[in-house]
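Onboarding guide, step 5: your first structure request.
Type a short instruction followed by the sequence, for example:

Predict the 3D structure of this protein.
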Amino acid sequence: MMLPGNLHILPRVQDSYGWLYVEQAIIEREGGALAIHTATGVTYAPCAMICFLMLGPGVSISHAAVSLLAEHGCSVGWTGEAGVRLYAAGLGETRTSCRLLHQAKMWADKASRMLVVRNLYKMRFATPLDPHLTLRQIRGMEGKRVRETYARMAEETGVVWRRRNYTSKEWNAADPINRALSSAHACLYGICHAAIVSAGYSPAIGFIHTGTMLAFVYDIADLYKTDTTIPTAFRVVSESPLDVERRVRIACRDIFHKQHLLAKIVNDIHTVLQLPNELESEENTASASKLTLWDPSEDELSAGKNYADSELGQRETSDGCDDSREGPDKTPG
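The system replies with structure tokens like these:
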């Protein structure tokens, strides 16, 4: 489907994924579809076809349109130009948490977390990693790989390179290449954040990185820096040291689109987390989207049911628990 004006259809992650990026438009609801008004006319987009709607600069969207997206479980992200930076995101209430739960399960067990960490590092090297290498040794190899990338790009472009050095509070004190690298990486973090959220994962549950709400974003972004943002930043600075922040953002937008990076990110996340086949398809995860109650000794129980008169409720009452009382921890009937 071709969209007029500044509307672009983004690459599909899989057949079951639809990405739509919109900028400079007014979005309203018309029946079961979005009516996207631009200077060149109106385009209709059925919500059932969209997995993730990215709202770029200059977009106004009605309350009714957002409500429709929520009803269909469509993710919505407020992004920078061409989706290279994610400012906020919202998920429809019908979205399943099965992929996030799988991510948390892999994180919570030390052995499986180490497996994911090794998967993340393996994807960065052209040759297989020796399984006997310790994590400390792998970190050292990764540091050497990145340092050699900086040196190689400096030699190829003629840009003077000393070291990675900048602080956000003294932005203008950094040299052009460090400012270009920081701007490029910010764009990469944005597109990784958008992909993580849209695929149903948490940006906060990191495996290599930890301690911030974007830890997993940094894990995933590091897979692509040496092939995308680092070469792009050096090339932009080699052309001119002026206005590097704006120029590198535009260059990153173009290279991300050219490399179909959004689609690659989600597939790579599935790979590093060793996502079970039944959770890869959006249709399967949608069918698993139901609210249940957790119980340590029973299978999952149906939610929205009062268990006061059930056999389970009677057993709990006999143990000294008055299950007939209403309270914040009771499930309403």
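Each response can be followed by summary notes, for example: Confidence is low (pLDDT under 50) at residues 1-17, 317-333.
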